[in-house]
Structure formats: structure tokens, C-alpha cells
Amino acid sequence: MSETNPAAAAEVAAPHRYTAALAADIEARWQDFWDADGTYAAPNPKGDLAGDPELAAKPKKFIMDMFPYPSGAGLHVGHPLGYIATDVFARFQRMTGHNVLHTLGFDAFGLPAEQYAVQTGTHPRVSTEANIENMKIQLRRLGLGHDKRRSFATIDPDYYKWTQWIFLQIFNSWYDDEARTARPVSELVAQFESGERALPGGRSWNELSAAERADVLGEYRLAYASDAPVNWCPGLGTVLANEEVTADGRSERGNFPVFKAKLRQWNMRITAYADRLLDDLDALDWPEAIKLQQRNWIGRSEGARVDFPIDGERITVFTTRPDTLFGATYMVLAPEHPLVEKFTPAAWPEGTHDVWTGGHATPAQAVTAYRAQAASKSDVERQAEAKDKTGVFIGAYATNPVNGERIPVFIADYVLMGYGTGAIMAVPAGDQRDFEFARAFELPIHCIVEPTDGRGTDTSTWEDAFSSYDAKIINSSGESVSLDGLGVAEAKTRITEWLERTGIGEGTVNFRLRDWLFSRQRYWGEPFPIVYDEEGIAHALPESMLPLELPEVEDYSPRTFDPDDADTQPETPLSRNEEWVDVTLDLGDGRGPRRYRRETNTMPNWAGSCWYELRYLDPHNGRQLVDPEIERYWMGPREGQPHGGVDLYVGGAEHAVLHLLYARFWSKVLYDLGHVSSVEPFHKLFNQGMIQAYVYRDSRGIAVAAAEVEERDGAYYYQGEKVSRLLGKMGKSLKNAVTPDEICAEYGADTLRLYEMAMGPLDVSRPWDTRAVVGQFRLLQRLWRNVVDEATGDVTVVDAEPDEDTLRALHKAIDGVRGDLEGMRFNTAIAKVTELNNHLTKASGAVPRSIAEPLVLLVAPLAPHIAEELWRKLGHEGSVVHQDFPVADPAYVVDETVTCVVQVKGKVKARLEVSPAISGEELEKVALTDEKVVAALDGAGIRKVIVRAPKLVNIVPV
Predict the structure, then answer these.
(1) What's the predicted TM-score (pTM) here?
(2) What is the CATH classification number for the domain harbouring 454?
(3) 814-836: per-residue pLDDT in tens?
(4) Could you list the residue range(s) of the whole structural domain that residue 452 is in?
(5) How far apart are CA 109 and CA 601, in angstroms?
(6) Is residue 944 one of the residues assigned to a domain?
(7) Which of 155, 716, 730, 766 could form a cystine bridge with 108, CB 3.0-4.6 A?
(8) pLDDT at 1 over 50
(9) Which one of 446, 476, 511 terminates a domain?
(10) Which of 166, 107, 96, 93 is nearest to 135 (CA)?
């Protein structure tokens, strides 16, 4: 038999060898056991912990992964990287005495399911729930220790009831700038009614109609509807957030062109929290790169608001350099600025330069044409450093308030309505974009900061703008204020004081952050719990009417249009279901049943992920968002975590300014309103790297199946044709995806877990190599053989005392693995386990029980199935999950001796075995008397001896 089939012969000789088949059997049995036993059920402080003082005394640890989206393609081996890492860390925390909450839900609203519904007619819920079930099977096979009682999907009505409830809390709140907190709108109404807070125009609250009151409150509400410039994507039939538009002005999903349009949309007033969102970053344990992204996105800048008179009114600008006001020679408004029409005259003023008109007969024609051109560009495109600057004169002049100069007003696409006031004072001498625009449109350039680079003050000779915070201000004197000779900081202070004294402006702070566009023209999303009365006033549904569930519709798609046609209006799927839209309701406000029209937009897919950490805490609570005692236990502030939050949150860095910023905003509103004790949702953030794979492309640039590519003489071939190879993402479309199911079938889940954790540091991207997986499989086979006889299946460990070398190997491994798991250095932890296991493999005789048992415990967080099986075989009844993690004996961790390298003239001349505790002075003496060192010096004098005890001596001869 061995001659014809060696593998079969080996299997007969070793029927209890750790094989893929045995691994599959072990893993399935233990997964069933964990489910039946409730091994990973995390007890809550109410009820569960009350009757168990020992359990109640345990410190808690709340560990989370970022919400997965249940794709129809299922998982590839890149997806579970973070899930395995948090599982290893959670298991280690359980074994070190923590009460651990670790579970996983599904972020299930979104565009992919809706697009699939449009293509097939399948209801999005049907396909999404099928995808969830498939994903659950794949995740279970990996042995992830999730508390399944706490799992949910954002599409569950019991879940999105509370998403809608939170929206209403935000809708019914306003931000009190003086108190720096959100407060109920009812308190604002009381201030208006009493006269404590004045109304615009000096009218009293009682004089206002219901519609006027609604308009006033809309200016304060944290969730409000407004007509505003939005990113309109006709090809998708929906509006997109700025973050969902690519740098080249196209939709992130579908790659359709995106245009600027004015539509009535729901917004979240996240800008009210800009300062707090910035300030509270300091106390979070997040990667500095993510903090920097959020700081840049929020974009706090200090400067001044300045009013420029125009036709008896004013244009207000925000500038960070008010000290350069004397250099402002023209103004630019965003094409969408509401004042453009107001100040655009019927004809061009006398003396208008031809280059300013864009070749149009009237200012109105020029403005209309330019607006259409600007609408076809994204904000990113408009702010790109394009060589050619475009714009058009609107036919009006404003007055520079510091010197009375008459300056022309333009519109140009490099000014955005969403930043500052949507208007700028242009100082071409000090800003490169303004400089290029001024040169293109033959506008004056005044030097107002003394150049320090030798170029002189004659701007006609300049090739670019000059800006400096260290230079002196020049050419900046008027009748009532002079800045000449001042430094920038002093000049900013003086001009700001003058602006405030004269009523022309004031010092202020501006933010790059814009309010969050919260409407989507989709079907598959949370319905807004809002209805409109006959006057168009928005009313909140009472809590008793929640959840407001999605109705059935015949067509799931929004109406899409010619992707290049910007002049279209969205038509949502919900608007077609008239029975659902037009309803008679009694809202409990004392007015009885009335006719209303429902909101037909839906919430964005980000809504459900803004608060899901709270639902994990108390997933079956139908009476309140979360029990306060439970929330305080798992997420409340504590030492080292002044803002509270999840103890560890693992996910991709790509969510830095979307999900993470939105979730922080919601958490702060809920905190202000007294619903939670945690100011921040996530205390510690860890960004895992990406598992990459080689992408192979043929001569047409089309990806070919990676599994079918052959390597010959350093080149790669697919079906006989040479192909290119490039390391990139892993995915179905790139034909290089490897599923976890394949690896589990060939080696087992524990091998997959070990391989993904051993590939490199968790926060670094790494290439997948299926051929390398076998290395971890062999580690588990050697571990198995160190405990189990492959021929009989009997346990082979003995009760003999281990030798000192083995004790040292064990305790060094314990010490190292404990530190590595705590620091999430899983690759080095596996290396230390491998080193110990190899030591036992090479040692003669059976493995002592006192070594085998702690070795199994070291492996348990990393490869839980084989650890459970070996723990049971070693005679233990309970699960290994809640066993104590081994503790190293310090006496065996410290080496008896260490190797000290001795260098002479930078070259190694001797290696000395010395005590780890040797002093530098003693080590120097030992090194200088060593025979090899003496010979190397050959009588030469010594100029310097550098000692780094106990491992290095460097001798520098004369």
C-alpha cells in the first residue's frame, strides 16, 4: 500500500494524526458546544451580576468590530482579519479575569441590496437576510466567540425603531452655544414666548403663524430641512454626501457624474459640535493619523468676518488674514451664492473689460452660463490647483471698507458655498489662486507684505504670490487705521479691533466642516418618522407610532435619469405608494385626526451605525434605548477613559471622517440630553491592515483567474498567454479572492486563524500566500503530537518534573505571549508559542503535564478548537475559554547569562557569557582582559570604551 499511496499508508499508521478531517470534526463539535453552553454570553450588571459577587468583581471589557455589510459575494480571507484579531484579544481578556462583551451585528441597509432588487425584483430584505445567514455560517466556522444573544441587523424593525427615535431626539433639540450643550426645543420655545430670547424683526412669538414659528425653530433644530446646494447624481437618482463623491467628481458607487443642485433635504447640524468634536479627540486612544484626518476635516480656523458694502447692502466674507485687507482688489462669490442674482445688473457697467464678460452680451447671460459650467464639477474638482482659472464678472462693484476702493465682484468655481460665507476678498499678492485669477483677468495686485525673498515690491515682475507670517506689513494705511511696519500677528489684532470698533466686522472662528446631508432618495433605508401637514410644516411622529416600517412598493429604484442631465429632480420609490404617503393620523397633540403627507426620502446607511454599540449592551429592551445602569457599566467614564466609550474598536481607516465622525456627533447629542453617560462612543481605536493578493491581467488589462496562473522562469502565464502581476486588493471582480471556506476545508479554521495572525503586525497590510498556510498547519500537528499519540489517540504527557531549560523556555514564552496578546502583537505571540513547541518537539521523552497544560492555555486564544480538545484530553471537564491565563515565574524569565558582543574598531572580536545584572564598570574589565580582545588590540592604547551593559562593549584604540 505504501508504494502506491504513501498518504493512505501514513493515515493507517497514524489514524489519530491531526489532519484537515480531524480538525473539521473537532471544530464542529466545539462550535456546537459553545452555542449550547452559552460559553460567550456576557452577563449584564442588572440581574446577571447581582447574584454573583465573584463575577461582579471582574473588570469589564467591551470589544467591538466595525459593522460588516452582508454582501452577496460572501467573505474572502481578507474580511475576517479584524474579526479574528478581536476574537483572540477577547479570549485573552476572558482568561485574564475580565467580563468580556464581544458580539457582531450587520449593517444591512444600503445601496447594493437595492440595486440587486432593481435588477431582479427580489425584495431587498429577502436577499439581505439570505446574505446575513450565509455570512453567519462562514463566521461561525472561524470559531469566533461572539455573544449571539446580542446580535441584530439594522434592518430589524425593533432596531430601527430606536434609530428613528434618536432622529426625533435630535429633531426636537437645539444647541445652546452659551451652555455648550443640546437642549429640548421646548425650552427654546419657552424663551421665545417669555421674551427672554428675541425674535428676528422684533415680533412676539404670539404674533407668528404656525408656519413662521416652524421656520424660526428650523434655524435652531439639530435636525432640519432646508433648500441647499447638494451633490445630485442623476445616474443613481439620489443625492450624495460630500464624502461619497470621488476626487474627480463622480459617485463613489457606480462612477456616475455628480452635479451641484438645490434641493430640499434633511440635514444634521453637526457643525454646532465642531469645537467639542475637536477638543475631545485629545482624550481618545486613537491613531494619530485618524485624529489628524478628523481635525483637518473639521478644519478650525481663526480670523475675522468683514462686511463689504455694495449697493446699500453688504457682502460678508470670512478671512484668516484680516491684516491683508488693504491688498483686496476684487471679490469672488461662489456661483451658487444667493446674492448673485440680487447684485447682477441688466447691462454691463461702462468700462467693463472684455476679458471679464466671458463673451456674453449681458451679466445675466454670463452668470447663467458660468453656473451651468460650475454645476458639472465636484467640490474637489473646483478646489483643485487647475492651471487655468475661470470666472465671470457679475457686473457689480463692492467697496473695500479699509480704503474705500471700488472693487469688482466675480463668481468663480474655486469658491465654495459650503465653506465660510461662500464669498472671499481676493488678495492676489498673498494667495496663489487669487494671483493666477488676477493675472488671467487683468486685475490689480497690491503688495501689502514686505517680501523677504528678494523679489521686491513691484508685483508686475512677480511670477507667483508671496505669503508669510514673519514679514512686515506695508502699503496698508488708511484714514482711520494703519498697519504699516507691524508684524502679522500684531496687525491681525489691530485690524480686528478696528473692525469691531467700527461695526464693519468682528473676530470669529470658522470651520471647514459642513452640516451632514441626511436625506437619500432611496427605498432601502430607514423611513423618516416625520409627516407634513397641509401648510408643509414638519411634525414628529409620537413614539407610540414607531417603528415606522417601509411599505411594499412595485418598483424599488428611484427614477434615474440621463447621467449627464443636471437639470432633473429626484423621484423616490416611496413617493409612488400614495396609500402610505397620504395618511390621516392623530398625533396626540390635541388637534385630533388630520391629513398628513409622509416624508418620502429615507435615512442614509450611516444612520444605523451611529449608535449600534448601545444596542449591543441591551439588545432586547423594547421600553428604552438602553438601560442607564447597563450603559454606565459597559461604557461609562472611568480612570483613563474620561469620556467613556467602547474599550477597543477595530476597523478600517477608511471610515475616519464618515462613520467615526457621525457616531461621535450622535453620542454627544445623546449625552447632552441625558440618555447616556458616555460622551464618546469609542475610547480606543485600532485600524487593521489589509490582506492583499496578486492581481493578474492579460494584454487587454482584464483580470484573469489567479488560481489558474502558472509561474515559469519568473514570468506568469494564463492559458498560455503571458500576463502581468501586481499586488492589490482581494475581491471577486479581480478574480483573486480566496474564501475562508476553502482554507478551512483544506487545513481547518485554527490554521486559518493562526496564519492570518502570523502574517505580520496587525496594522500593516500583507500579501496572501496560500502556499504558506501549511506552515501553521504543521505547528498545530506538532502541538498535537506533543500531547497525543497519533497511533492510539492516547494522551502521552507524564507527571515527571521538567528540566530547567524547559522551565525557562515555558516561562519566557508565558511572559512574552502575555505581553504580546495584551499589545495585540499576535504575530510575535505565535512566534513565541512556536519556539516553545519546537523546544518540546526536540526534547527527548514525553512532555511533562506541567508544561503541556500551560502550553495549551497559551494557544487557546489563538487556536481555540484544538485547545479545547487538548484541554479535555488532558482530563479537564470545563471549557478552556474561562481558564486562567498562565503567569510567568520571574525567576525563570531572566536568563542566567546573556551574550555580550565585544567590538574593536567596529569589528566583533569576542563574545562573552555574562550575568544580565553585570555593571558597566565590571563588564569593561572583563572585556579588556579577554584573550581575544587583548590579541586584537596588540598593545595599542585605548582612546575610548563604550559600554552598553550587558550586551555590548565597543573599544576604540588610539
Answers:
(1) 0.86
(2) 3.90.740.10
(3) 999 999 999 999 999 999 999 99
(4) 300-511
(5) 14
(6) yes
(7) 155
(8) no
(9) 511
(10) 107
